[in-house]
Amino acid sequence: MAKGIQEREFQNLMIQWSLPMGWRFTEGRRLPRETTQAVVYGQLRDAIVRLNPGVIDGFDPDAVVEEIIATVNAVEGGLVRANEQVLHLLRGRKEFRDADGVWHPLMVIDFEHPAVNTLIVSDEVTITVPGKTSRRFDLVYWVNGLPLVVVEVKSPTSKSGWVDAAREINDVYATEYPWFFTPNVFAVASDGLKLRFGAAGAPTNLWQPFRSTADDENLSGQNDVHRSVELLLNPATVLDMLANFALFNTSGGGADKKYLPRYPQMEAAHLIHERVLDGGAKGLIWHHQGSGKTLLMVFAASLLLADTRTESPTIILLSDRTQLVRQTSGVFTSAMGDAYFHQPTTSQELRSLLADDVRGVISTTVHKFANAGKNLSRRDNIIVMVDEAHRTQSSRSDSLAGQMRAALPRAKFFGMTGTPVRNLATDTFALFGAESDPGRVLHRYSVSRSLLDGATVPVMLAPHPVSFIVDDQALQQEFDQFADEFDLDDPDRETLSRKFGRLTSVFSNPERIHAVCQDIVNHYLAGAYRNGLKAQVVTYNRELAVAYTDKLNELLTGFEASQVLAEVGKHDRIAAEVNVSVSNSKGEDPAMRPFRLSEAEEEEQKRRFLTPDDPLCFLVVTAKLMTGFDAPNEGVLYLDKPLKAHNLFQTITRTNRTWISPSGFVKTSGVVVDYIGLAEEVQRAVVDPSSPEAAGKGGGFVTNLSELVAEFRATFARIEDLFADVDDLDLAVHGYESVRAMNVFLDANPEVAEVFSRDYRLLARLYPLVSTDKRVAKYQDGFALFGSVYTTLFKRSSDEERKERLAELGPMVLEIINAHVHSFSAVAVKEESLVLDAQGIAILKELMAIVRPGGKDDGADKTPPSAAEILDRIKAALDKGVEPESVKYTALAERIKLLRDRIIQDAQDALDFLSEALRIARAIVDAGKRPDEAVVLDDDHVGVLSRIIHDHAPSGLTVTERNLAEEIDQVVTSTLARSWDNADARNRGVRRATAAVFRRYMLKPVGEPYDSTVAYIEAHYLVD
């Protein structure tokens, strides 16, 4: 009962927010309507009479209303088509025949004056027919007796969220009573903390927030919902959406679709419209890649075409690639008919259309303006909207863009881009930006807003560098011998060196191709494939695209791949296909001609790739499909081609589209696996060129996987520390006894339980992003155990706490916990790779300063040296500074030997390696300065720990810092001696032992000085 009251309270709050905007409240049970009907008959009849003075006298108003109701109730062709027909009628585009047989358009809604309409909001609106279960809508917003908006709410304190509300609208209400939704403009789902709107029946990943780019990005919770209600449910917005932005594609060739705008699309479309009406000549729209710029162009074109003040404009949708709006061209033909939409196939056809003064929409490419001549059309109501405006757009008169502007000298130009360019060759801001616009940008939709809105997902950069060794001297010797044998002169030798010394030779090496393709297959089958995601592979050139495709298909038929396919049970086989540009000219390489795809073949290939169950899982490309190809189900892109600037940005955003699989998997991030080492270039690519102060900060949507892994491991360690005093607890044993023991401990320590809950929620959000990485494999049992403990806490908590935790945890993470998630090794890590974080780089610099005094700082300007190189330098320092026959030399050499045998697999191992190497290097320096003293490899641990405790001592500390430090040193040393042969047990034991000492002295093993103490121990004690 409490839940229902809370939902009713939130309903009432939405009603209160709606009243100042012009809505009047009428209880659902008091509406003058039949519960079997979707229309309030009397209100519709009154509006028809009121809005059509001088015309309605020739009609029978009741007959008009009955005709409208018949249209509302007709759903035989499906809800989308029925919705299109009703909204067409509501826009005043259907004519009615009067008593004399004359046809007239009638106004059903006044769009110019929203307040003239009858605006009602009602709660608990019932719909029922005999033989069906009665349903009751939480809120309905009526305009002139027509239900334009349906709202379903959930309590802010229940475990159900907005997604559950949206699914009820889709799967229950719109399915059982579709005629109630034929007048629907959009539906709304909210749980009081979040609000989303969408077309009834549309997948939930297409439901979007409705905000304003002028508002604070960090608005959240009830404040965010309140603001969304003010913006979205304002009568002017509802009617604007109905009149101008609810568009359809029912022209055939696929499933019927209804398009609703995201709020930045709506804002930008209105700004373009206003700029045209004001006589402005240009404008730059800068929206994050993947947030819907092509559809924005469609909305803006529709708005301009519908306004008589634009005097029947010609709107050119321009791209540098063919078939820019193939996926949305049906919108125009659905709304206006074929006569208003043109796709010229030749340059001559384009010139004829413009010379003949054709009106409507022309979809074409910039290439068709080549040699178009000057003054092809001098009309000023030609509006050119350029997709990907940073490409092929130049101010040079001899460029394609220059020829287009010469042909259309008075046209207005609007550029859409996610990557504006400002360099010596191109300046997107100067070319499209009006000087009067702030920063020369008419409208901006940033990366951060796009991610906060869920319009796109973040992209993780996973470096998989491919190392190789080149013996320069042997190579040169063999080449010289070869050249001598064939008596090559110097020019010939130079020609061969240039030809085969290029990067292509390295990329074309068969061993490298095999290594990269094997890694791709392993990585894909371990993660993306299991979630139904597809992949792109970007190669250095066309020939390599073919070679990679062949190798991938070979590996995909292997035993390991077959085992994964059998385990998942979706396909008997999966495949890769190549998609590269192959011309039909005589000069084309004959070896490439078999890979030329016709337009129909390419569209079929794309369709198969976009189909979740189709076995086409890889598209291998080199340039095509890296931009302008919208594939929401693409989860991973394997990048093996050097790219820079906006080309790199465009490529890495291929995976940032939102998607929900047919089985319910929610794509929360995209992955770019980088085989080149483009991390720094990525950061340069995502810098905002209009914001100099942002240089070096990146765009905020690319995350390094190693950083997430490091955060996961640090969070896991903090949770381990919390349970250090639970007797006989083994985190590798996920069973009832372990869960019970941990819960008993948390019940007795509520402050610790609060810290555990907070850290576990962070851990659970990180896990789906890092679960396939080898570095977290050893944590999976402990993670599952923590999940079970959290779940029991979750079930015992109050409704309010449960809601908060569920919202943060997310249904996907709960599913992962319940299924005892498995993690799969994807990459064979090289033994001596050094993956360094900031701390590791600092230690490396100090180490290099010791072993190479006065030399170049190797950690600053180039790739960090390998472990072997570091050890060689330490050994050289030892040989130089310590007597070779001395006891000191023998002891230090033995420590170097032990360090050389160490296997480095991840960042923590590299950090431990460097810490030990630094201690050895310092000991070598000390040994050289004090030859008569014994070898001391470790610092004065007790002294350092005393200083740490003193610096962070809490008020009321009664024990002497030195005494506490000595006890910690003894306990840690003893623990290390007991678990010398098990690294995991050693690390856990040390943390538990340290926490136990803190508790004996009434100090919390959370925060300072505990954190700094553990950090010091991990850096200076935990050495194999």
Automatic annotation (TrEMBL):
UniProt KW ATP-binding keyword: yes
Gene Ontology molecular function terms on file: endonuclease activity
Keyword ATP-binding: yes
Start and end residues of each Helicase ATP-binding domain: 274-438
Pfam family, one: T1R_D3-like
SUPFAM superfamilies (UniProt xref): P-loop containing nucleoside triphosphate hydrolases
Catalytic activity: Endonucleolytic cleavage of DNA to give random double-stranded fragments with terminal 5'-phosphates, ATP is simultaneously hydrolyzed
Root EC class: hydrolase
Entry keyword set: ATP-binding, DNA-binding, Endonuclease, Hydrolase, Nuclease, Nucleotide-binding, Restriction system
Function: Subunit R is required for both nuclease and ATPase activities, but not for modification.
Assigned protein family: Belongs to the HsdR family.
Oligomeric and partner information: The type I restriction/modification system is composed of three polypeptides R, M and S.
Protein name: Type I restriction enzyme endonuclease subunit
Organism in which the protein naturally occurs: Actinomadura violacea
